[in-house]
Each structure stands twice: as structure tokens, then as C-alpha cells.
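Researcher: Hi, I'm a grad student and pretty new to this. My advisor asked me to get structures for two proteins we've been looking at. I'm not sure of the right format, so I'll just paste the first sequence and hope you can take it from there.
Model: That works fine. Here's the first sequence with its C-alpha cells right after it:
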Amino acid sequence: MAVQESLQNLMKDAKRVIKVSKKPDREEYFNFSKVTAIGILLIGLIGFIIVIIGMLIGL
């Protein structure tokens, strides 16, 4: 019975999340894309700086 109750609770929670969730509007999607692009650029820049430092040190 514990497994069946767990599955029922999981399904109930999943239905609640689907009811609450909504499709992002254009502005929200643009902001999300902008933040993601900035994050990718920062990670790339940090990696590039590490490689340049490594080349200067002679690693």
C-alpha cells in the first residue's frame, strides 16, 4: 500500500504543477535567453583567461 500511496501522491503533485505552470510570454522568454547567453559568455571568458594564463606560465 505504501507504494500505491506514493504513486498517487506523485500524480497529484504532478497535476498541481501542470495546472500552475504557464507558457512564458515573449518578454520572459527574451530575458531568460539573455541571462543564458550572458552565462555562456562568462564561462567561455573564464576558460579563455585560464588558457591564456596557462600559456603565459608555460603549462
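Researcher: Oh nice, that was easy. Here's the second one.
Model: And its structure:
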Amino acid sequence: MKKNEELFYLIKSLTKSEKRYFKIETQRNEFTEYLLLFDAIAEQKSYNEAQIKELFKDKAFATQLTTIKNYLKQRILQSLRNYHSKISIQAELTDILRNIEILFHKGLYTVCNSELKRAEKKAINFQQNLLLFQIQDWKRKVHQALFPQDFNTIKTIITSQKKTLNASVEYTNLLLANTNPTHFSLSHKKTHHIQNKTLKTLHIFQKQLASKNEIKAKQTIEKLIKEWEQNPELLKEYFATYFSVCNNYLSYLVYKKMHKEAFVRILLLKQKAKEFNNTSTSAALIKETLRLYNIELEIHRDLKDLHNTQNIITEIQEFIDINRMLIPGNYWLSFRFQFAAIYFRKKDYKKALHWVNDILNHQTKKDRKDLITYTYWINILIHYELGNGFTLRYLIESLKKHIKKQKNIELYEKIILKFMSKTVEYSTKDKTLSFNNLKIELEKQTIPKHVLGYIGFNEWVAKNL
């Protein structure tokens, strides 16, 4: 995103109700020129500043477009703050702290204390340590203003602040430890904050997996999930964290091929996501939902029949369409590639070809080059399976040119391409013999594991023996 496109993407991210709220709020306080600029940018499919300047060339603000755009951005952000004032406990507490600061400077210490009690209770209940530290700091300031010689109470408040700060330091240490669980050791000191406990448990879980203690690892993460579910208020407020923990557990179940248990967990998680979905965690939930879909597609790749693959693909399409502005383009490319790969493995070549063509016919310069290359490969494999000899030979030449632009053609790639070009029109009996010979040749080569993760060449050969 370029600097001059920030306002465009901000406007595009607004929901209908957010736009309505902004316009009602703005019309009461501002000149209509700002709304004209807002509407003009909202109508654009991609940001075009030259078009905006041309459209408003007769308006006075056109000569200060950068300044006006910055002002409009700040007005939108202010409107969003007001609209989402109850977006989360953190937002509520931040607003209360702003009120406390204003009240303090007005000398209204009694009202300050009333607000501080309300804020402190919420911060403790929802384990908002960083904000709790600030609340306790204002509590100390107010008490010092009222009773400057009451050092015992002030000392008690500062001691509470220190405990809160220690919990925050523990949280950052746990975040750091989870960047590389195998290289960090944690103290055995118990923690009572669920966010800290989550990070600590995930650290233990990863270390148990690394040491092949998989049964213990499963028990560890199941216990954590149960603890979250026994705290409904915290679960609702920090649902994205719970979602992430569940995704870690699902990844483990898929790794262990426990597909039935994984499917049950996925259905329960999706139900909870519908129940707790709210704007306060929308971006985080989108990220975790995409991760969940990737896990679900991995299960579908391993299933022998089509199961309900089309249903999940339709669900993913709808989800991405709704949240298009918040999802990077390469996520959609990755999902379409997975759709094509799944249908190819299940020998539904018509649907596989549909997604291959969708990718290749809508390529952009921003697309991941490796995924485009793997898509070319699936395209060739499909046409080989369909026996389209003339088309296949043309596609092989196109792929060779494409690969050469990126890197040198690997020996295993040359072997496979030569094999397909030569044997595409062989009889079934001759093909089986040829595949046996191909298997022997490929066993002498090392196909990188990351490549096999995208294109199962060895699996494809084995299926044709």
C-alpha cells in the first residue's frame, strides 16, 4: 500500500453502517466538500489521484489535496472511535482513562475515584494488565492529591502496580519464548492470567511435540482448551486467542490423521465463531478463519472420495468475497491452487481445470511466482490424464519457457516433461510399463520436499502403476 492510497483503503474498509454514521456525524460539523471527496474516493475501484484532482479542479480544496486527505482520514478514524466505543473491554477502559484524565485536571477527584473503581474492576476481571497499570497510576495520583501524607496507602497502590507490571513483563517474555520454543526455557512459576497461561502452555506443547511426546502434547492442549471454555466471559472477549489455540490443536489432529475428530472440532469451532463474531476481533478472526480453512482443505486432500469438498470450497469463496478488502490477493491465489490440487488428486479433472484456468487467466505481477509455476504443472498433469496430446505438447513448451525465466530446469522436471510428451498417447498397458520406468528414474533423483508438498509427483506416478 502506497502512502497516498491509505485513505482509499480506509474508506473501502468501512461497512455500510460505519459510512452512514460518519456521514451523519460529519454533516453536522463540516462543509460538504469533505463528503464530496469521501464519496468520490469510495466510488473508485482502485485509487486514481489524477482522476480526483481533475474531478475537483474547480474546488478550492483541490490545491491542498494532501492536507485535506489527511484531515479526512483523521475525521474517519475519530468517527470509527466513536462508533466502536464499545468494541472491546480494552476500548472501554481506554475511554474511561481519557475521562479520568479530564476529571483529574478539573480537580473532580471524587468523580475520578468513582470512575477508577469501575475501571479497575473491569481491568481485573478481563486481565487487562497494561491498562490496569495505568488505572493504578491514576489511582495513586488521585490519592496523593487528596491525601499527600498518606504514604502507607500510596505504598500499597505502588506495590499493586509492581505486581501488575510483573505480569506484563511475564507476558512479553512468553511472547519471546514462543518465537522459538525449543531454544527457550521457562520458569515453573504458576501464572493466573489466561493470556500468559496460554502462551506458557503453547510453549510446553511445542516442546513436547519436538521431543516426540505426542500423547502428552495432546493432553496439554486439550486441558488449555477446556480452561478457556470454562471462562465464558474471557472466551468471548479474547475469542481470537481461543480460535488460535484450537487451530494449533486441529493441526496436530490432521498431522496424526485423526480426521473424524478434527471434523467434529471444526464444526464446533465454526459454531462458536458465529456466536462470538464481532467487529472487535474481525481482523484476527479473519486470519484464524483462513488458517482453519487451510487445515480443513488439508483433510480433504487426504480423503479418498469427494466427501463434501464442493461445500467447503463454496464456503471459502463466500467468506473471501465478503472480506475481500481485508484478505491479501495471494491468499485467494493459494486457496484456488489448493482447490485445483484437491480436485486433481480426486480425478475430478473438469473442476480442477476450472480452477487452473481461473488462476492462469487472471494472473497479475503481484502473484506468487512459485504458485503460478505449480499451477502450470497441474494444468499439464490434467491434460496428460485427459489424453490431450496436441494441447499437452504446446503446454510443455510454455512451461519450459516459464521455468527458464525463474530458474534452471531441474533434472527431475526434464524427466517428467519428456515422459509426458512421449507417452501421452500410449495405450494403458504401455503407459503402465512406462510409469514403472519413470518411477525407477525418479528414485535416482531428489525432488525437494517443499515441491512435493505442492505437486505430489511421486503419488501421481504410484497411482498410475
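Researcher: Is there anything I should tell my advisor about the second?
Model: You could mention this: The chain has a mean pLDDT of 89.
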